[in-house]
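Methods — Computational structure assignment.
A single polypeptide chain was analysed. Its primary sequence is given first, followed by the predicted tertiary structure written as structure tokens.
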Amino acid sequence: MKVTVTGSTGLIGDALVRSLRGDGHEVVRLVRHAPESPDEARWDPLGGQVDAAALEGVDAVVHLAGAGVGDRPWTASYKRQIRESRVTGTRTLAEAIAAASDRPRVLVSGSAVGYYGDTGDREITEDAPNGSGFLAEVTRDWEAATGPAADAGVRVALARTGIVLSGDGGLLGKVLPLFKLGLGGRLGDGRQWVSWISLPDQVAALRFLIDGDLAGPVNLTGPRPVTNAVYTKAIGQALHRPTALAVPAFALRAALRDFADEGPLVSQRVLPRRLEEAGFRFEHRDVNTALHSVL
């Protein structure tokens, strides 16, 4: 199988590329710089250009590129960058796929559970409506930007991902130094729900979407979301460190501004209904097992 991947240097993309190559599949990595190796091809997501050869005759395209949501403060310019990197970049790729003479059979396009907005204590599956807020609006438009590929007859799976657990990066990787020092703690009152998935299950789920027949939105989250308080305690147990501290909500809002209420304080109890109904089997079904594995 031949697979083209964007965002291949990110946490998920790198793990996916290694997994595919480990099983003997050929991977082409779309990069924004001049290609430096035979497995690279150039694209300019904001400029609307893609090396057409990277899409001709491939079996699948996995699109994971986009500016990190929690990487920088949400200034007006950075919010614009978050939106453009996802919406414009996805449209560029989808239009290039539609224009290919020998199109891939599937586009697995990264998305996020941010689509649902803050959902409180309610259990959420893929049929839940679009929520409110900046991330919900961006995710709605991000998914809609895959339209040209779907209109051209390509199966499009929208991978709505939660917090990916890994000791090597992502949101968990950023806070691990504090937890290792015994300075980790719950955020706000800790009652907000966290929808997580281990990195191995994330990669396995993406490959399941490549190989299967699911189309449309698919939640890539573990089957047992937990509250932030439980999540925090589980990290401490995995590291054998105390987690008695707490970061007040007002402090998070002062430090993170708009991102606080759409990131660490948002409550999302998202379930992977379509994945499980299609027969996907999670390696890590509970947060304690997942954290002990990845840490």
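Note: Residues 2-229+254-294 form a domain with the Rossmann fold fold (CATH 3.40.50.720).
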